[in-house]
Design brief:
Elements (H helix, E strand, L loop, with lengths): L1 H30 L4 E2 L4 E2 L4 E3 L4 E3 L4 E2 L4 E4 L10 E3 L4 E2 L4 E4 L3 E3 L4 E2 L4 E3 L2 E2 L13 E2 L4 E3 L4 E2 L4 E2 L4 E2 L4 E2 L4 E2 L7 E4 L4 E5 L3 H7 L1
């Protein structure tokens, strides 16, 4: 029994090692096409990337399997329109789409299947399929340092999510979320706020 358990443990470790090695190798291969790719950042395949020259990724960032990074700036652009800070973690299946600017701070935690975009699809022209109508409601998205976005949430254009803020699972964020606040629902509303522990300590 012990030998079987050891074999299973070893098999899992070997699988993990292979996955880690492949992910690191893939990351090294694609890094050169990005505006910036920080040290130690890794993507887990499969991954879809469009417009990588306009994407800046900090150091130590993790993208889980199934993510899609899409940068398609309106007009001529040399600067990145998608900026992801150091130490962020995207669990997998996340979509980030930028035509103006999506700026994600440092050490932001993003659960599975989160959608973040600084635009909507245009849809009012009944003579064309929506996919051919371009974009509308373009406005920057900013997510502060240390925020946490729960599973399946949607962040729409023109939204600022504050430092240390939490967005609950399945929330649809259409308005700003202040620092150190919890937003939930569709559309999301702030249901709780708190004073950072550092500020509490300073007050005493």
């Amino acid at each position: 029994m012990g030998s079987v358990t050891a074999l299973r443990i070893n098999g899992t470790a070997i699988y993990r090692m292979i996955q880690d090695s492949y992910s690191k190798a893939l990351s090294l291969v694609i890094a050169g096409g990005f505006h910036h790719w920080g040290h130690g950042s890794v993507v887990r395949p499969p991954v879809r990337v469009s417009g990588e020259r306009w994407i800046s990724v900090g150091s130590g960032v993790h993208f889980g399997a199934g993510c899609w990074l899409n940068a398609d700036p309106i007009g001529m652009a040399d600067a990145p329109v998608m900026l992801i800070g150091d130490g962020c973690s995207f669990a997998g299946g996340c979509v980030i789409s930028a035509v103006s600017q999506v700026r994600i701070g440092r050490e932001v935690l993003v659960a599975r299947n989160v959608y973040i975009a600084d635009h909507d699809h245009a849809y009012l022209d009944v003579s064309q399929a929506i996919m051919r109508q371009g974009v509308a409601s373009v406005d920057q998205v900013i997510i502060g340092d240390g925020a946490w976005l729960g599973q399946n949430c949607v962040v729409t254009s023109g939204v600022r999510i504050g430092r240390g803020a939490v967005v609950a699972a399945n929330a649809v964020v259409t308005k700003d979320v202040p620092d150190y606040s919890l937003a939930a629902g569709a559309p999301a509303k702030v249901v709780k706020s708190w004073v950072p522990a550092t500020a509490q300590a300073a007050a005493h």
